[in-house]
Design the sequence.
């Protein structure tokens, strides 16, 4: 499998995020981002992170997301949407290209050649028993 470059990964993430968040109203508000940032500092979230990962939760990125949102307050809704999509796509692209403990599978760009057909295709191809 060829190595994915950063800009290709960003473009793939932009396409995905635009499907997940098709409208400007679908992106989180600044208040939602502030709530996420503040809840990151709650004792139960810090203890959960300590238990699961062995260190306290890192909330700096959530704070940066809130600051980014506040810096976009003067933008038109569509510009704000595009800026948010681009920022999230860059974050996901960096995460995809970096090493991770979740690097177990390799993403395929096409299905396996001898892989079973989807059920709907098998049913369509199925002739059924014939009476003779």
Sequence:
């Amino acid at each position: 499998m060829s190595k994915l470059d950063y800009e290709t990964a960003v473009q793939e993430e932009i396409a995905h995020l635009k499907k997940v968040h098709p409208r400007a109203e679908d992106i989180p508000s600044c208040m939602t981002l502030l709530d996420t940032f503040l809840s990151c500092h709650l004792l139960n979230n810090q203890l959960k992170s300590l238990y699961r990962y062995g260190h306290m939760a890192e909330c700096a990125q959530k704070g940066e997301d809130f600051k980014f949102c506040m810096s976009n307050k003067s933008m038109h809704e569509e510009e704000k949407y595009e800026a948010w999509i681009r920022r999230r796509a860059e974050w996901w692209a960096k995460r995809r290209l970096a090493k991770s403990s979740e690097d177990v599978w390799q993403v395929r760009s096409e299905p396996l050649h001898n892989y079973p057909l989807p059920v709907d295709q098998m049913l369509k191809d199925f002739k059924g028993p014939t009476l003779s």
About this structure: The chain is about 60% helix and 0% strand. The longest helix spans residues 77-97. The two ends are 50 Å apart (CA to CA). The chain has a mean pLDDT of 87.
